[in-house]
TrEMBL record:
Topology within the bilayer: Multi-pass membrane protein
Entry's transmembrane regions: 12-32, 52-72, 79-100, 106-127, 139-157, 169-191, 212-236, 248-266, 278-295, 301-321, 333-352, 364-383
The keyword DNA-binding appears for this protein: no
All copies of domain Major facilitator superfamily (MFS) profile, residue ranges: 13-391
UniProt xrefs under SUPFAM superfamilies: MFS general substrate transporter
PROSITE patterns: MFS
Family according to the record: Belongs to the major facilitator superfamily. Nitrate/nitrite porter (TC 2.A.1.8) family.
Keyword set, alphabetical order: Membrane, Nitrate assimilation, Transmembrane, Transmembrane helix
Record's protein name: Nitrate/nitrite transporter
Localisation: Membrane
């Protein structure tokens, strides 16, 4: 597969629009994580409340991805994306103008930020439907690299909050969001081969396929680990190593950047050697890295190195999962993107909330990390169980490597 073949295969402006939309959406989806130290200080939140605050957008985004998956099939991806962006922009504007004065109010905002997380169910089908099977991993990896927006949040939000107050960060976020919204309106196009709208029963029927559940579990581990860490590491570095919010944000940005950067590489590698082989290696690396992190590293630099390794594995795993999904469920890619994305959000919610709960109850983050490392091992065992069946059934009928 060469670059020229890929460029001729799809619609580059739509792929760019999908990436930019995804990027800005992810930036605001995890925004409460990088701002968590300042928000928690001003509102007097406990460790468990901090964990639940940064986890709530992940959970809301998880379930809203189903809603967006339905809208994608009923209205087509571009229209669904327009609706979602308007809701997020309006929510941030209200939060900026009205202010956030209580734990309850920050949770309400967190739910609306979940709409940004649901962008996953829009951006990926918007891009995917333009590309043939042999280019799915690369196309989905590029669009999915929009999760690099989490880097922007970690890099800039704490510094901006220290300079002009954390509530004003919501207003500043409206600037890039509005610019990308205009670009999206101008250049994004729905693919000409969009499938016709499905009946509600069609969505239920997908869940009767055991492969749908396997993909949901696999993504709950890869994306759940990525998003859960992206939302939690600023608070972790602040609590564990005494870093101020700005420096904790810088360390978080470095870790998250690693995971974001390699998502397209994971998709491309899966195109070359197969998604199953790629995922096998990534789950093993993620499990080892998270288990080591659970012990608590003696220095922040060593901890950062371990989290970079974990994020590299999880980020590449994200790309590999979505090299496989379109091969197995091409006709149901809209609803499957929503379902698999929902599972990823639930995984992120679990990790982020359990870290805060573990810290409050035991005084340590160890149990939260160890349990998620165990889930990575279970995913590895599950992949080993299904790989022979996948390769000899639907895998044998597609042009791409699986």
């Amino acid at each position: 597969m060469n670059r020229q073949s890929f460029l001729k295969a799809g619609h580059a402006p739509t792929l760019l629009a999908a990436f930019l939309y995804f990027d800005m959406a992810f930036m605001v989806w995890v925004l409460l994580g990088p701002l968590g130290v300042q928000i928690a200080t001003d509102l007097g939140l406990s460790q468990a409340q901090k964990g639940f605050m940064v986890a709530t957008p992940l959970l809301a985004g998880a379930f809203l991805r189903i809603v967006m998956g339905v809208l994608v099939d009923q209205l087509k991806p571009k229209a669904a994306g327009i609706i979602a962006q308007i809701i997020v922009i309006a929510a941030l504007f209200v939060a900026w103008q009205h202010g956030i004065r209580s734990y309850a109010e920050v949770l309400v905002l967190a739910v609306f930020l979940g709409v940004a997380g649901a962008s996953f169910a829009v951006a990926l089908p918007l891009a995917s439907r333009w590309y043939p099977p042999e280019h799915q991993g690369t196309a989905m990896g590029i669009a999915g690299a929009g999760n690099s927006g989490t880097v922007l949040a970690a890099l800039f939000a704490p510094s901006l909050a220290m300079a002009c107050g954390w509530s004003n960060v919501f207003g500043l976020a409206l600037i890039p969001l509005s610019i990308v919204f205009v670009v999206y309106l101008l250049v994004a196009k729905d693919a000409p081969n969009c499938p016709p709208p499905k009946q509600f029963s069609d969505y239920i029927s997908v869940l009767k396929d055991r492969d749908a559940w396997w993909f949901m579990f696999f993504y709950a581990v890869t994306f759940g680990g990525f998003s859960g860490l992206a939302s939690s590491l600023t608070i972790y570095f602040n609590n564990q190593y005494g870093l101020d919010p700005k420096m904790a944000g810088f360390f978080t940005a470095g870790c998250v950047f690693a995971g974001s950067l390699v998502r397209p590489i994971g998709g491309n590698l899966a195109d070359r050697i197969g998604g199953i082989r790629t995922l096998t290696a990534m789950y093993a690396l993620a499990a080892v890295a998270l288990a080591i992190a659970s012990a608590g590293m003696p220095t922040v630099w060593l901890a950062a190195a371990i989290f970079v390794a974990a994020m590299l594995a999880l980020g590449m795993g994200n790309g590999a999962v979505f090299q496989l999904v379109p091969q197995r469920f091409r006709k149901e890619i809209g609803v499957m993107t929503g379902l698999v994305g929902m599972a990823g959000g639930i995984g992120g919610f679990y990790l982020a909330s359990s870290l805060g709960y573990s810290k409050q109850v035991t005084g340590s983050y160890q149990n939260g990390f160890l349990i998620f490392a165990g889930l990575a091992v279970l995913a590895l065992l599950g992949l080993t169980r299904v790989k022979r069946r996948w390769r000899t059934t639907w895998g044998a009928a597609v042009a791409a490597r699986i």
